[in-house]
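Chapter summary example: a protein plus 1,5-di-O-phosphono-alpha-D-ribofuranose.
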Amino acid sequence: MEIRGAGRIARAAAEALRDHALSLEVKDLPAFTAEMETAAAMLVATRPTAVSLPNAIHIVMAGLDKAKNTGEAQAGLVRRADGFIQSSRHAVENIAQFGARHIRDGDTILTHCNSEVALGCIIEAHRSGKDIEVFATEVRPRNQGHITIRTLNDAGIRTNFIVDSAVRSFINDVDLVIVGADAVTVNGAVVNKIGTSQVAHTAKEARVNMIVAAETYKFAPRTVIGEFIDIEERPPDEVLPDAIAKTLQHVTVRNPAFDVTPAEYIDLIVTEAGAIPPQMAYVIIREYLGWDIAEFQKSLELNHNL
Ligand code: RI2
């Protein structure tokens, strides 16, 4: 939780792999590869939900097995890590430009949690001269809304700060909902911070459009072969102090950090490759992440052989 936001987590992982590769002093290629694979597995295990993390690691580690010597393996890894970090930054900038076009002069936008890309769209709309106003939620239990309102305030954007449960009270004042994503599945469902699906449900009922801003590396390739996205459940003391919880022997605190919004609640997913209806998620997985069914079959065969 030191690094917030699925995109930042992905760039931090690429940076960590690059720095680790540069610091390793092993000359032997199999030993170098084994060290890097251990590091990659350790990074993947830090957060289970944001698919940007395994996607970034997959991109950085790809081709390591084809290197002829350690120098080549190291250089390739550093090149792919730097390439990923740069393309991630460009993706965030492009999404801000594309997303801002969906915001009209005079619009009021609601956002939930703290998404670099969702805020990028809002800030770009403001920068281009549109008169906009924002509703930002608190985001219990970790209060990521506090980071969001500071960013919006610093950008000079009129912002209303509300508790999560006030979304329905204000939805009729809202023209558009924009949120980020931790993962997008092959059927176009969006996994994002807990509460997003309630916001989406409220928006749908009130006929307010909902846009998701998500880089292509937030799409989850392994959902094509039926894998589910693991929803991280965080410690109970984030919700209720231990001192109180231990006096309540019949109470269990549940603290899932993310939830799933079905595709039919989402009007558009804005990616750096352009805006798509959520139902086209598979195209992004195949065309932009380069994972096709043959690769899945290969990885399944490998698993069977283990
Ligand atoms: P960007 C965050 O997760 C939030 O759920 C946010 O909506 C999503 O990642 C995408 O954020 P967390 O890291 O990549 O706060 O758009 O658990 O910044």
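Key point: Residues 70-100 form the longest helix (31 residues).
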